[in-house]
Design brief:
By secondary structure, the chain is α+β, with helices and mostly antiparallel strands. The protein has 3 domains: about 1-165, no CATH class; about 180-195 and about 270-384, no CATH class; about 200-270. It is about 45% helix and about 20% strand. The protein is built from 9 helices and 16 strands. It has helices at about 15-45, 50-60, 75-90, 205-230, 245-275, 290, 300-305, 305-320, 365-384, and strands at about 1-10, 110, 120, 125, 130-135, 145-155, 160-165, 180-185, 185-190, 195-200, 235, 240, 280-285, 325-330, 355, 365. A 7-stranded antiparallel beta sheet has the order 2-6-7-1-5-4-3. Strand 15 and strand 16 (about 365) form a beta hairpin. Helix 1 packs across helix 3 (about 75-90), helix 4 (about 205-230) packs antiparallel against helix 5 and helix 5 (about 245-275) crosses helix 8 (about 305-320).
Length: about 375
Amino acid sequence: MIKTFKVELVPNNKQRSKLERSAGTARWAYNWALARSKDNYEQTGKFVFDGDLRKELTQLKKTPELAWLYQCSNNITKQAVKDCTIALEKFFKNKSNFPIFKSKRKSRSSFYHDPIKLKVTETHVRLEKIGYVKFKEQGRIPRGVSYQNPRITRAGDTWYISVAADVECTDVTETSEPIGIDLGIKDLAVVSDGQVFKNINKTRRMKTLSKRAKRLEKRKKRFQRRANRHYTKKVENQAKKSRNLLSLEKQILSVNKKIRDQHINHIHQMTSKLVKTKPEFIVIEDLNVNGLLKNNRLARVIQEQRLNEVRRQLEYKCNWYGVKLIIADTSYPSSKLCSECGHKKSDLRLSDRTYVCTECMNMIDRDLNAAINLMQYGMRDVSA
């Protein structure tokens, strides 16, 4: 089983500078390849792809203007050019939009590392031309296996390494009962067998972090208004930020990272608990999250629930453990159907938290009723 491991790194100041330089090199190579392909298309009507671009870049490295590329690993520029080619191929196959240039301010900093030259110990990882970088968590990445597609990325002010490895699937409890999962706002998930996973935003710890984040955001807006009035120095037509504003932005990144990590960890614990029991199948709804976000009153709450992240984790974890994942149609009225007799209650409102059937007088929690209906949907789908 191919499994991906992502671990936070703890680089020192010199290593942090080298990591930023490597990410900048990868960004430059990607933009160069994209610009070169577009220019060639405008002149000849054809795009330049991976092999020719890499040969041309090898010759350009020998010029004094681009000699700085030798400060980083050769594989970084090679893979960046290959990534640009893959993005163009996806565009021609109508799988994505036309690739855009990567911005230093907006794009995510990342670069590739040769898996053969990657050396992992219990506490450190050796990166080419960077040295041994310490792990924040020890023993997370398995050793003695072949690695695939190592990537070093930065989120905010934190660096991570992600690598895929072929490992055995363990810690599985066999069971045959299928389950349906209703995702929502009041509770993150309600399962057809009665399990309820609470909304993490309602916990005391998350409320404290959210309040701190809101306070910092207010301070940042106040500093920005003050800074806009008192900017006196400009560098390349861009206003220079004050030290207080830079310090405040780092605090905001730190708090937002803690909130994001706790949300994702909460979802990981939920999805792992459900999938590791190895049910016959799992059923969830194909939610139109973009449509739900159009509700201005609930948009922020829905966004904080990270419903797309729940589905993403269920998809790859079900693939790991050999569990069938069934996606119910968006039009399936799981909340409006009675789980006992199948009667459809068309006038059900969002404020009705208890489902009362007018035909069989069945009274049941709204979310549990929807989860049972999803499980029954899966049983019909399997038997069909």
